[in-house]
């Protein structure tokens, strides 16, 4: 179950049994489908970039999709689609906050 207080949900490319989810480009495909759902709505050419609400990434060697809670507020059906994708494919889901890499101090 996903807590409403989490700002981001991580769908991990690992099943509850610990198996790597296939196909290997699943995260990019899912984020591509969700590219039209973005702040301000869809725009011409928007399908050529990922939505900031649904971004594929790799964390500790595991493919993931980071889904921002703002997607749920703006497009509840899109949120349900992503969460049901994770559930239907038995993927691990974690709540967290993505912390940007620290930039080295200039000196």
From TrEMBL:
Protein name per its UniProtKB record: DUF3579 domain-containing protein
Biological source species: Pseudacidovorax intermedius
């Amino acid at each position: 179950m996903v807590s409403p207080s989490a700002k981001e949900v991580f769908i991990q490319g690992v099943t509850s049994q610990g198996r790597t989810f296939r196909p290997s480009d699943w995260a990019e495909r899912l984020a591509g489908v969700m590219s039209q759902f973005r702040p301000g709505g869809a725009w011409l050419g928007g399908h050529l970039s990922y939505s900031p609400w649904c971004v594929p990434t790799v964390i500790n060697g595991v493919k993931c999709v980071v889904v921002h809670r703002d997607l749920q507020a703006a497009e509840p059906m899109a949120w349900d689609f992503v969460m049901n994708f994770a559930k239907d494919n038995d993927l691990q889901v974690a709540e967290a906050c993505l912390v940007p890499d620290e930039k080295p101090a200039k000196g």
